[in-house]
Every structure is written in structure tokens, then in C-alpha cells.
Design brief:
This protein has 200 residues and is of the alpha/beta class. The protein contains 7 helices and 7 strands. The protein is globular and about 45 Å long. InterPro entries: Methyltransf_11 (IPR013216), SAM-dependent_MTases_sf (IPR029063).
Length: 200
């Protein structure tokens, strides 16, 4: 079973109890920062790639944005639809093949899922494709100190939770540029998380 299948299996298994899981503990550090960044835009279309159970959208004000979420865990999408109702549209799908037209979104959020992607360049190319010119990409992910990150990235290959690769600031900048995105900022958002922002 590859990392992709491990990730799907892991999140299908914990979908119903996700809000009580260890996975959520570090992600909470990112919610307020992401919401603040999103609300710098008065209105528009927002896509959450790897949206999980839709927690982020429950925090955003009603009626201000067109909200779309995609995740390849069917059980997570079921939870998201129950949680958000008509506030957002959710799809089961693959981040490597986003089912949206070019230049569709003002903001794309990828919160605590980028480190699961075994083909990050393909995912970023897809995000770049569906992002509008001048649109922002917000990637919140676990942050690992520089000295231990290489070791952790070896260990994650044997993880049952589908973790694949953790990125540092400079590495993220390089893959942004490689895939047609301009790095804007890097911010530590907690003890174990960071926010990478890029623009198309």
C-alpha cells in the first residue's frame, strides 16, 4: 500500500472522531491565521484542497464567499457535508486531478495535507491551474526543525498515517517557483506548524 492509499485509509478510519483526534491538535494552531488571511479578500471563490471534515469553513462568515472543498476520503466528505450544510460544496476527488476549470478561484487553501502528497509538483501545477491570476495559495503544514527534518522524512516513509514529506521554508519556495507560483511569505504559526503563502 503506497502513501496515498495509507492516507485515505487513515482518514476514512478516523473521520467520525476526527475532532477528538491527535491529528486535529496541531491543525488548530493554523485555523485563526488562515481565517485572517482569507478575510483580507472581501469576497470570492475559495477552494480547500484536502478539506477533511470542513472545519475551516465553519469558522468563516456565512454568505461572504463561495466555498468549495475537495478530499479523497469519502467519509471525511460525508462529515463535511453534514457539518456545513448548504454553506459549501464538497466533492470526493484527487488533488492531482482537480475537477475545476482554469482560473476558477481567488484563494486556495491546503491545510495540513500537503505533506501527504506523493506527487507535490503535480498537485501544485493543478492548484496553479485553477487559481486566478493574482490569486493566493495558502499552505499550512507541520513544521519540523531543520536538523531533524531529514531523519523524520525517512521515518515517515514507514508511517501508517500516510505522511510522506515535510517541507522547510526554502524547499517550499523552490517548488512554488518550479510550478509557476511566486513565494510571498513564510510564517511560523505555532510550535509545530507553519504557513507558506504564494501567488499566481
Amino acid at each position: 500500500m503506497d502513501a496515498k492509499e495509507k492516507t485515505k485509509q487513515h482518514f476514512d478510519e478516523i473521520a467520525h472522531e476526527y475532532n477528538n483526534s491527535d491529528d486535529l491538535k496541531f491543525i488548530k494552531e493554523l485555523y485563526d491565521v488562515l481565517v485572517n488571511e482569507i478575510q483580507k479578500v472581501e469576497s470570492g471563490k475559495i477552494l480547500d484542497v484536502g478539506c477533511g471534515n470542513g472545519n475551516l469553513f465553519t469558522i468563516l462568515p456565512d454568505g461572504k464567499y463561495e466555498l468549495f472543498g475537495i478530499d479523497f476520503s469519502e467519509k471525511m466528505i460525508i462529515e463535511a457535508k453534514e457539518k456545513c450544510g448548504d454553506k459549501a460544496s464538497f466533492l470526493v476527488g484527487d488533488a492531482e486531478k482537480l475537477p475545476f476549470d482554469d482560473n476558477s478561484f481567488d484563494i486556495i487553501v491546503c491545510n495540513a495535507s500537503f505533506h501527504h502528497y506523493i506527487n507535490p509538483d503535480i498537485v501544485l501545477m493543478e492548484m496553479q491551474r485553477v487559481l486566478k491570476d493574482g490569486g493566493k495559495l495558502l499552505i499550512g503544514d507541520p513544521y519540523m526543525p531543520t536538523l531533524v527534518r531529514p531523519v523524520i522524512n525517512i521515518i515517515t516513509k514507514f508511517s501508517d498515517e500516510g505522511d510522506y514529506h515535510f517541507y522547510g521554508e526554502n524547499e517550499m519556495k523552490k517548488i512554488f517557483l518550479k510550478n509557476g507560483l511566486t513565494p510571498l511569505s513564510f510564517q511560523r504559526t505555532g510550535n509545530h506548524t507553519a504557513l507558506h503563502i504564494a501567488e499566481k
